[in-house]
Amino acid sequence: MAVRDAASLLVGLFVIFHTWGAWADVDVNMEDRVEVIMGETAQITCMFTSSEGIGGMMIQWSYVTRSGEKQRIFYQDSTMKVVERGTPFTERISVNGTGATGEVVLTISDVQLADEVEFVCYIRGLTDGSGEGRTKLKVFKTPDLPTIEHLQKEISVNEKDMVKIGTCEVKNGFPKPNITWYSNTTPLRSVPNVMKVVPRSTIESSGLFSVTSELNMKVVKEHKDDEFYCEVTYFVPGGTRMTETYRINITVFYPSTAVNAWVESPKGKIKEGDSIELHCVGNGNSPSSVISFKRLEDDKTWEQKVLLLPNVSRLDSGGYECTSLDTDTFESVSDNISIFVNYLDPAVVMPQENVIVAQGADLKATCNALSSLQTQTVWIKDGQEVSKGHTLMVEKATFDKAGTYMCVVTVPEIEGMETSGTLLLNVRGPPEILNRDNTEREESYETMVDLSCHVRGYPTPKVIWTTSDGKVLGTASEIVTEDGVKSEVSIKVTSDITAFCNASNEAGTDVLIFNIKATENSTTPPATTTTTTTTTTTNTTNTTATTTPISSTTVKPASAIPKKNPKEGSGAIIAAIIICILLLAILGSVLFFLYKKGKICGRSGKQDLTKDKSSKDNIVVEMKSDNTEEAVLLGVNGEKQPAGDQSSEYLDVQK
Ligand SMILES: *[C@@H]1O[C@H](CO)[C@@H](O)[C@H](O)[C@H]1NC(C)=O
Ligand SMILES: *[C@@H]1O[C@H](CO)[C@@H](O)[C@H](O)[C@H]1NC(C)=O
Ligand SMILES: *[C@@H]1O[C@H](CO)[C@@H](O)[C@H](O)[C@H]1NC(C)=O
Question: Hey, which of 91, 336, 356, 468 has its CA 20 to 30 A from 452?
Fold first, then answer.
């Protein structure tokens, strides 16, 4: 109480003296604080007024030491300026102004941390009046750029304790800078058992502060995309600033809570023969989780994320389970997919393969292929679709309907799924010779004429070529076709010829007659020419005489009808030639003998000779049809020889 009263009294007195002007009073005016960056220059202004006027003032600068004492650093009056020796400021200070203006400025260059003290400006007038002002100097040092250290980069959520994520450090700041950890935009604070931010600051020998901060955290899955960084705030003259470190992120390992399995390929329905690719992924991220596939049918297991099943069959159909097992916790999750492999069995045609149907009869055939899917069936003959559906109906069978029918079974839902079967339909009926034109011809003597006969009918007709005088002609070629046979002969024109193509099977006979008129060739021998320049026609009457109606009787096949194995033929040729030569020799010698005996002119001999004469040079008859055929076919190197050579293979035989 006493102190208070005394203070009030003093104030009262002061006011009284001031008003009265009894004491010469000095008013000193200074800023509370001056802020400066370390190393730069600080200016502290001291302004003063006095009722006496301001001339001849004594000005003294000092600072307050740690112990609270004032230490003078500068002194001036109207006559001198003195820098106090031996102080920390001796070398770095100067004072502007004489005091005559009522303002002096203390300039301190190269400000140091230790300069952060209170400066006192003391003014004393000529009389006893005096005053002082004080300014605190504040020094700042911008810290170095902060650094961040990434400690643990891969962290499993299975970790029971908090994990050191990183450390931030900022060095050499003044005053002490602060470090704040951020996750994305959220400042992080310590939370028991969840997060711990440990700051640590040190004072360097220079007096500057260095600060570190360590972030410890219990990692959860949600942190997987977080970015962590530090923000450093520090004071600067007039405010605060901040800088940030770069961002770090952590890889969080967490187990899957679900897996997803699917068929990667093929897309759509699966068929036998496809290669299947199954994929499986979990929603976790963990090196300790193992993904495997299991076929439920037989528990067969594959330890892989991608399961390839090449060339599947219907037996691969079934359920497949994908499991993700965490080998740390032995927890597992799984997903099931089921696979269905579609199939299409080979087509089964009923009746099977070769079917014989009588002319005019009906045929019903079916084609079936077992499939897991809907199928479509079409029947195709000679490249044309003839029927839809799995049943084929052939009504009133004709030769035109004979042939190969193919049924094609497809699965419309799956491209390329197809099978097929065939049916050969034979229509039973008597021979029917096609292409009945070009039967009347004129040919030069000595040329080779090819006659051909195309016969339909089933059973495959036998074709016999004969001449009007009953001789059987050897077939040059015979090709059995789907609906019959094609037969050809080669004849050397030595006279007018009437040739019959007699086709027969058990159901009947058909005959085609060729009439060939032999004409003179202008260019006479040799007989090797095949081209005729001019031909003279001679009328013969007996060529058309043989067109008698044909009865449907079975024609007795000639002794040696074609269709002979060429191998046994070659042996037969040689044998035949030898026999012929022998026969000729015997015949010749007999004739010669008879002639010698003089009996040849008398009886039968004459007749023979006349007949012989009429057909001199012209008769080209093979002894055995197959022999000549083989002779033609088996030329040098197996090639067919030209007509000239070919003719030499024929044997002129008289019967
Ligand atoms: C640092 O943190 C302290 C305590 O929260 C605070 O008083 C001070 O102003 C902060 N410094 C800066 C530069 O923000
Ligand atoms: C952080 O993650 C992103 C993508 O997740 C990546 O591109 C980047 O390199 C990561 N940064 C660090 C510091 O790991
Ligand atoms: C071939 O048919 C004709 C005409 O019907 C007949 O004269 C001839 O005898 C038949 N020949 C054979 C070998 O059947």
Answer: 356
Q: Please say if the pLDDT value at position 541 is more than 80.
A: no
| Rounded distance between C-alpha atoms, residue 139 and residue 116, angstroms | 6
Comparing CA positions, the residue from 270, 234, 23, 214 lying closest to residue 129 is: 23
Could you tell me the two tokens for 348?
Answer: 């089964």
292-311, pLDDT tens digit by residue?
Answer: 999 999 999 999 999 999 99
Say which range, 17-21, 317-321, 484-488, has the weakest mean pLDDT.
Answer: 17-21
Tell me how far the alpha carbon of residue 575 lies from the centroid of ligand 2, in angstroms: 100
Distance 221 CA to ligand 2 centre (A): 16
Residue 359 has pLDDT above 60, yes or no: yes
- The answer, yes or no, to whether any atom of ligand 3 lies below 6 A from the CB of 591, is no
Q: Which of 247, 249, 250 to mutate to test the pocket of ligand 2 (most atoms within 8 A of CB)?
A: 249
Q: How far is the CA of 223 from the centre of ligand 2 (A)?
A: 13
Contact (Cβ atoms closer than 8 angstroms) between residue 198 and residue 181: no
Q: Rounded to two decimals, what is the model's pTM?
A: 0.56
**Nearest protein CA to atom 10 of ligand 2, as residue:** 249
CA of 652 to the centre of ligand 3 (A): 24
What is the predicted pLDDT for the residue at 593?
A: 67
Atom of ligand 1 nearest to the CA of 235: 13
